[in-house]
Structures are given as structure tokens and as C-alpha cells.
Amino acid sequence: MNSRIEAVRKRLMETECDAFFSVAPPTNQYLTGFTGSTSAVVITANEALFLCDFRYTEQAASQVHGCRIEEIKGNLLKRLAERLKDLKVESAGFEPAYLTVDEFQTIQSEFSGSLKPQPELIAGLRSVKSPEEVEAVRAASGLAETVLVDLLPSIKSGISERELAARFEYEFKRRGASGASFDTIALFGARSSLPHGQPADTLLRPGDVVLLDFGCRKGGYCSDLTRTYVFGNIPGLWLEEIYAITLKAQEAALQSVKAGIPCRQLDAVARDIIGEAGYGKQFGHGLGHGVGIEIHEAPRLNPEAEAVLEAGMVITIEPGIYLPGKGGVRIEDLVVVTGNGCEVLTKSPKELKVLSE
Fold first, then answer.
1. What are 235-289's pLDDT values in tens digits?
2. Distance between CA 17 and CA 290 in Å, rounded?
3. What is the reported pLDDT for 357?
4. CA 177 to CA 278: how far, in whole Å?
């Protein structure tokens, strides 16, 4: 028996839907174990059906658990709609974040019943990780950190942001990851003020800030880590100041993590420290986010977040201060929420480190 499919069935009983369907790869991986890019899952009270075409039938046979596998021909969405009709479904729930308007219209054109958005049905299940999922994230995090430790001594004058990012991603795969969790961020000097800047041909020079935000995917789960360094020499007191403030805010937030705290309240712990130091406008993103099969999952930690932390959630804590034209600092750890605190998965030191020339 697939416990996740059973959990979906229980949640369906709380809705006005008699079925749930998904064409989203992350959701289908979570529900069945399938890691391919194209499939559909249909769950009713009595049926769990997995649809894929010829390209994936052999893979599905070895990966999919708890579903009857059917190889389909032609348009996946139309076959999905047909199966909903065959199962006499009258109202089908789906995740609106993973279905385009065009896909919705294609399914609806072939299905006479109603399609009802159910944004929390799966997200609520995925946000709390099982012990096995936590171990998968831990393994991905550990691999990424070994790459950081080994690459730091190789960061020398003249290396480009793009090359350094490529070295991280090469090492991830060489050491057993399926790839990066997201496009690796490596930013030097004033470009470190770009919170999600893309690596360019900028060359490293003494006095540059070095901001590294990276993670890998291993066993189907992601990791995420940010560290900020300086190369050769500290560029000024301004950098020491914003680094100290960011670290203080991050440590205070880590100490406040526990089951039962509202996400917006946790965000405020770090945001208030940075704001009181005079840099509130320079911290414009949320404090963190959930991590799992996807690099950004529920819950979100920001001033508008509605969620409350639960034990078993895996989240990032990543405040930052960004000064355009000068540089920025972000410090990010990956943590598992517990009943009375958290376990920090990332182990890399956080004191301001000067990388030698």
C-alpha cells in the first residue's frame, strides 16, 4: 500500500472532489516515486492510475509504487480526461500552480465534469518530511558542502563567476548527484548585491566580495546553502558591518525556529534586527522557504506568510543585506524543524572568512 496515495484519499474526503489528478513531475515523484518528466496520476477512492507514454514505461515499471501503470498513445492530457470519464468522476481536484491555462482548457474540453483547484491538498502533505526524506536532504546537503570545502582553495585571482559556478556543478555530478538543485550563483565584488544574480564573465580581484549560493539534487531531493566570503582583503568597514548584522539576524532566527511559530513571526525576528540596524530596505526578500523534491516548496517565510511551522518541515534561513554598487551579504542554512527547536543540516563555518590570494 502506498501511504501517500492513502493520505491523498483521506484529504479528498474533506473536499467536494471525488478524484485528484496531477501532471506535475514533482508531485508525481512524491506520490509514486517516478522521476521522469512526463506522466499523469489519477487518484480516486478506489483507483490509483499512472499514465505515461512508450518513452517511460520501462522506467515506470521499476519506479512507480501503488499505482496501476498504463501506457498511453497520443496526447497525455486528452487521455487523462478520458480516464476521468471512464472512472465516472464528476469533480476532479488539481494543483493550480502546476497546470497552465492551456492545459486546463485541453482537459476541460474532453471532460464534462468540473475541475476544482486544490492548492493545499498535496502541498500540505509535502511540506512535512518523513525521516527518509530528511535523510535524503541531509545527504544532498552533505555532498554540496564537501564540494564547497574542496573548491574554496582553488578560488584565485582571474577566475570568472561563470567558471566557478561550472566547477560546482561539475563536481556535484562527478560525486554522485544528479545535478544542481538550481543554477549555481557565484557573484564577485559589487555584483554580490544582486540577490539572485546570474554568473557572468566577471573576473575575481583582490578585495572582492564572493557570494556563493548553491545546492545539489541527490536521491530526488535538493539542498541549498549560501556563504559569503571576501577575497584577498576586506574591502572596508561597511562589509564587516553588514556581515555582522546579517549573521546576528540569521543566528537569532535559527534560535527562534520551532514547531508552532508562525512563519511571518519567524521572518520578523531577522527582519527587525536588520531594520533596527538601518538596513531594512536592503533586505527585500523573504527569510526562507521549504526545500524538498523542489528547491522552493511550502512553507514560505515572509511578512505575508500564513503558515505555521510544523515538526518535520525542512526550511532555509537566509537573511541578507544588499548595497547596490558596493556588494551584498547573504548567509543561509538548511534546517529541520523539531518540536522545540531545529536541527541545522549545514555545517560550514559562518565567520567572515578571507580567501587567500
1. 999 999 999 999 999 999 999 999 999 999 999 999 999 999 999 999 999 999 9
2. 27
3. 85
4. 41
From 63, 49, 52, 60, select the one nearest 19 (Cα to Cα): 49
pLDDT at 347 over 80: yes
Residue 277: count of CB within 10 angstroms of its CB? 18
For residue 298 the three cell numbers come to 511550502
> pLDDT tens digits, residue range 107-145?
999 999 999 999 999 999 999 999 999 999 999 999 999
Considering only CA atoms, which of 116, 18, 28, 16 is closest in space to residue 76?
28
What is the per-residue pLDDT across 218-229, written as a single tens digit (0 to 9) for each?
Answer: 999 999 999 999
Residue 206: its pLDDT value, please?
97
Instruction: Report which DSSP code applies to 303.
Output: T
**C-alpha–C-alpha distance, residues 274 and 174, integer Å:** 39
Coil/strand/helix, residue 67: coil
Distance of CA 94 to the CA centre of its chain: 21
**C-alpha dist (Å) from residue 97 to 102, 282, 319, 335:** 13, 29, 26, 25
Q: Is the pLDDT of residue 323 over 90?
A: yes
Write out the H or E segment, with its range, that includes residue 180: strand 179-180
Contact between 186 and 163 (Cβ < 8 Å): no
Cα–Cα nearest to 217, from 182, 184, 166:
182
List the grid coordinates of 83.
Answer: 480516464
Residue 89 has a CB neighbour count (10 Å cut-off) of: 22
CA-CA-CA-CA dihedral for 136, 67, 64, 310, to nearest 10? -10
Q: Is 316 left (phi over 0), alpha (psi -120 to 50) or beta?
A: beta
